[in-house]
Amino acid sequence: MDPVPVTATRARETVLRIASDLFYRGGVRAVGMEMIVERSGVAKTTIYRHFPTKDALIEAFLEREDREFWQQWEEVVASHAGESRRALSGLCDWVGDRVSRDNYRGCPQINVAAEFAECEHPARKVAHRHKAEMVERLTALCRELDISTAELRAHQIGLLFDGAFMSNGRLGNVGAAAILNDAVGRLVGA
């Protein structure tokens, strides 16, 4: 298979970067393809060559967010290798920092999934996989703590994290990381 020309790769990445920013700030339904063409400077035919539909572009946006999220998650967990309790605390700090950022608008997965009622929509499928992955990863950390109710605790921690992601910045002023650390500590018996 021949490598993709640099210009095609650059055009795809430019469109995805611009669309991702617009989708995150304004919501996917509020952003039309014409706006993406205008802001990216990439011809509509080129965009549709890389993303045959707007739904395909939305899916690529969420998959990109997913990869970046898990890369950062792994960095936090790896910095506490072998210390699951500290890894959970580090994740609480990381989530707290995320939700306290300027212009934070919530979890892209949750935001986009909320815009589509159809369970089979690609955006909903990516969001579902993302949240299932979070519970799996949290379950593994809770099992390392030898908690008999590891899966239950993982679901509870996942709900706390999702609540923080949906807090619309309200937790930034009151210490999101401290709130999460306290709640998670109580759940895992810190």
UniProtKB/TrEMBL annotation:
Gene3D superfamilies: Tetracycline Repressor, domain 2 (1.10.357.10). One of its GO terms (molecular function) is transcription cis-regulatory region binding. Residues 9-69 form the HTH tetR-type domain. Signal peptide: none annotated. It comes from the Bacteria. It holds the Pfam family TetR_N. Residues 32-51 bind DNA. Keywords: DNA-binding. This is TetR/AcrR family transcriptional regulator. It comes from Sphingomonas oligophenolica.
